[in-house]
Automatic annotation (TrEMBL):
<feature type="transmembrane region" description="Helical">
    <location>
        <begin position="41"/>
        <end position="64"/>
    </location>
</feature>
<keyword id="KW-0812">Transmembrane</keyword>
<feature type="transmembrane region" description="Helical">
    <location>
        <begin position="426"/>
        <end position="450"/>
    </location>
</feature>
<feature type="transmembrane region" description="Helical">
    <location>
        <begin position="70"/>
        <end position="92"/>
    </location>
</feature>
<feature type="transmembrane region" description="Helical">
    <location>
        <begin position="505"/>
        <end position="526"/>
    </location>
</feature>
<dbReference type="GO" id="GO:0055085">
    <property type="term" value="P:transmembrane transport"/>
</dbReference>
<keyword id="KW-0472">Membrane</keyword>
<dbReference type="Pfam" id="PF03547">
    <property type="entry name" value="Mem_trans"/>
</dbReference>
<feature type="transmembrane region" description="Helical">
    <location>
        <begin position="538"/>
        <end position="561"/>
    </location>
</feature>
<dbReference type="InterPro" id="IPR040254">
    <property type="entry name" value="Ecm3-like"/>
</dbReference>
<dbReference type="GO" id="GO:0016020">
    <property type="term" value="C:membrane"/>
</dbReference>
<dbReference type="InterPro" id="IPR004776">
    <property type="entry name" value="Mem_transp_PIN-like"/>
</dbReference>
<feature type="transmembrane region" description="Helical">
    <location>
        <begin position="462"/>
        <end position="485"/>
    </location>
</feature>
<feature type="transmembrane region" description="Helical">
    <location>
        <begin position="6"/>
        <end position="29"/>
    </location>
</feature>
<feature type="region of interest" description="Disordered">
    <location>
        <begin position="313"/>
        <end position="365"/>
    </location>
</feature>
<keyword id="KW-1133">Transmembrane helix</keyword>
<protein>
    <recommendedName>
        <fullName>Auxin efflux carrier</fullName>
    </recommendedName>
</protein>
Length: 562
């Protein structure tokens, strides 16, 4: 058999063993012998007992001060994979049709990958073959995967990434526009932005620039009236805000066009310095108040440096709303004293978040510390806690000598137990024993979850283009980037030494795993009807295609590290 055949066979055999185990879970669930309640209990055992025990035994045995430096490169790869997946998901969402209930879920599906039992099952089997050391590399590979698991827990649970799955089900979620209309609006916005930028640059180059010369300028309301004094005199009196400006603002703000006589076009004067611009904007923000009047169609005279024209009252709130946007803080209220008193005396709604979490509700206590504490609580999952305890033990020689043999410590400074082993070696054996059930149990749970997936029917109504694009992005594009990135770092830096074969294999292989199943669980939790049909369709194709793409990825990784 040629070398290529050897590499393909070496990459396919671990996946074949994994596929058989997944098929067992699928068959049990289809026959009704592994119901959802049993799967839920088994998942708690796997996540809270077996996986932490596996991570603890692997990290304590495998990590040392010689290879602890590999934590940095692995974290770097994990973060880069997540950011690239996020960018690919956003690109797919903007270019292809994605259902309205999956606009944010597609970002979660492309960002977070299955970095748990699935890659551990493959790596522990691959590590027993050449060119790996079957005595050391299976445990070392599990420890390396634990680093990716830690990054996943921090970003998905600790930093609130799981909440993205809930954004598709918000009460005020808007309907998605068709792609053509969406891009037409964006082209118009880009043209307006480009026109403003060109006008600003031309105004800076020229000391005086006519308003009609600007490509983006539009004739302001009542511009013809302002240019003709006779028409302005014939108009009914209007309420202005000139009397409400502070004296210092009156000195800064000009009160009209520089040349507004006759038919001359108004002229915009250029500011001499950035400080004057800032002072003018601050004066406008602090002084201009638009007070309602009793007339049926009231107007307010808005004064801007170099311009003065009338704006209807109903336009101003729209302008303010468009300037505030969803991500900006609204301006401070300028209500009348009566309204302010009523607003202050009115009790806050009982279900309003501010009434529960505001400093006033808790006696004025500061809440700046709550966010870090929440992140810490969400990050401290059983696998993460196990890793946090295992890392110091593996690096501190006296502590490690309590569990495994350490040269210079075991049998001398730290005596052996009566059975000739380190004093706490029994604890490490227990953790290893519990960890052995993690991989097969996790694969059986994966197969059972596939059996319970509800794919929408008919299938031709699914967003086929987006499903295929996500599969290609996760299982083809991202692995290519991961292999190129790891090999580049190995050839040009010391982050991935050539002799660290398992380190390089893990970094490359974990770039090509399918989407995490936790996204499916969180979507079902947040969904009003408890279903996640669209996400199920996206996951199904990825996990079917995984047996082809992972075999190819493992073969390429074998060829590069051999």
């Amino acid at each position: 058999m040629t070398n290529v055949g050897n590499y393909i066979y070496s990459g396919f055999v671990p996946l074949l063993k994994m596929a058989i185990t997944i098929a067992c879970g699928f068959a049990l669930a289809k026959k009704g012998m592994f119901p959802a309640a049993a799967a839920r209990g088994a998942s708690f055992v796997a996540m809270n007992v077996s996986l932490p025990a596996l991570i603890f035994s692997a990290v304590v045995s495998a990590f040392s001060k010689d290879n602890i430096a590999s934590l940095g490169p692995l974290c770097l790869n994990a973060i880069v994979y997540q950011f690239i997946g996020l960018a690919l998901g956003w690109l797919i969402r903007e270019c292809l049709y994605v259902p309205a209930d999956f606009q944010w879920g597609i970002l979660a599906a492309t960002t977070w990958s299955n970095w748990g039992n699935l890659p551990i099952a493959v790596i522990t089997t691959v590590a027993t073959q050449s060119p790996f050391d079957k005595n050391v590399d299976p445990t070392l590979g599990t420890a390396y995967v634990a680093v990716f698991t830690l990054v996943y827990n921090i970003t998905f649970f600790g930093m609130g990434g799981c909440k993205i799955c809930a954004w598709d089900f918000r009460p005020g979620a808007a309907e998605v526009l068709p792609i053509k209309q969406r891009w037409a609006r964006r082209r118009q916005a880009f043209r307006r932005l480009w026109g403003r930028a060109r006008g600003t640059m031309e105004a800076r180059r020229s000391p005086t620039l006519s308003l009609s010369d600007l490509p983006y300028a539009e004739t302001p309301p009542q511009i013809s009236t302002l240019a003709n004094p006779e028409l302005e005199k014939s108009m009914p009196p209007q309420d202005t805000i000139d009397d409400k400006l502070r004296p210092d603002a009156q000195d800064i703000i000009s009160t009209g066009y520089a040349n507004a006589s006759g038919s001359q076009a108004p002229v915009i004067s250029r500011y001499r310095s950035h400080q004057e611009v800032v002072a003018t904007v601050q004066a406008l923000h602090d002084t201009i108040q638009l007070a309602p009047v009793s007339s049926r169609v009231s107007r307010n005279r808005v004064i801007i440096p170099g311009r003065e024209y009338d704006v209807p009252d109903d336009v101003v709130p729209k302008i303010r709303d468009s300037q505030e946007g969803p991500g900006r803080r609204p301006p401070r209220s300028r209500q009348s004293p009566a309204l302010s008193t009523n607003a202050a005396s009115a009790p806050a709604p009982a279900n309003h978040p501010a009434s529960e979490h505001s400093p006033q509700a808790k006696g004025g206590s500061a809440s700046w510390y709550r966010t870090p504490l929440n992140i810490l609580k969400l990050t401290l999952t059983p696998p993460s806690i196990s890793l946090f305890f295992a890392l110091p033990i593996s690096l501190v020689q006296p502590l490690k000598a309590l569990f495994v043999n350490v040269e210079g410590w075991s049998g001398g400074r730290i005596p052996f137990s009566p059975d000739g082993k380190p004093p706490l070696n029994w604890l490490l054996d227990t953790a290893s024993f519990l960890g052995q059930i993690c991989i097969p149990l996790g694969l059986i749970l994966l197969g059972a979850s596939f059996a319970r997936l509800d794919l929408p029917k008919p299938l031709w109504k699914l967003p086929i283009a987006a499903i295929v694009a996500v599969t290609v992005a996760k299982m083809v594009i991202l692995p290519v980037i991961g292999v190129l990135m790891t090999e580049s770092l190995s050839n040009h830096t010391s982050l991935y030494p050539k002799d660290q074969k398992m380190l390089r294999f893990v970094a490359m292989f974990l770039s090509g795993t399918p989407s995490a199943l936790n996204s499916l669980i969180m979507t079902m939790i947040y969904s009003p009807d408890g279903r996640a049909d669209t996400l199920s369709a996206f996951l199904a194709l990825q996990y079917v295609f995984m047996f082809i793409s992972s075999t190819a990825l493992a073969a390429v990784a074998f060829a590069l590290i051999a």
